[in-house]
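Incident review: delayed structure delivery

Summary: a single-chain prediction request sat in the queue longer than the usual turnaround. Root cause was a stuck worker, restarted by the on-call engineer. No data loss occurred. The affected request and its eventual output are reproduced below so the record is complete for anyone auditing the incident later.

Affected input:
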Amino acid sequence: MGLFGKKKEVTPVDNTPAAKKMIMKNLVDPNEATNLADSLIKGIPLCLGFGELDIDEANKIIAFLSGVIYSLDGVAKQLNDNAFLFARKEEFLDGSLNEFLKNFK
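Output delivered after worker restart:
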């Protein structure tokens, strides 16, 4: 029992490797940015391709998501000319994202 007789809520731990939770997609709709930001906040890494977007739209979304991930103390890594990985530092702890980066190309 917690303070004043209330039961303390227990949050279940998700042991799924970060690389398995990752959202991988080529963006075609710039309006998806806020939903993707919500995913980052929930601890879901993003591997996004921007090749199908106009360069200005792509740059705006990259800047927006970079700001979101910066505020979460995470990282944005450029994978190639058109793809980026966005993830919080916590998602790198299990090693699955580092393995993904090592094998990406």
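Verification: The chain has a mean pLDDT of 90.
Action items: add queue-age alerting; document worker restart procedure.
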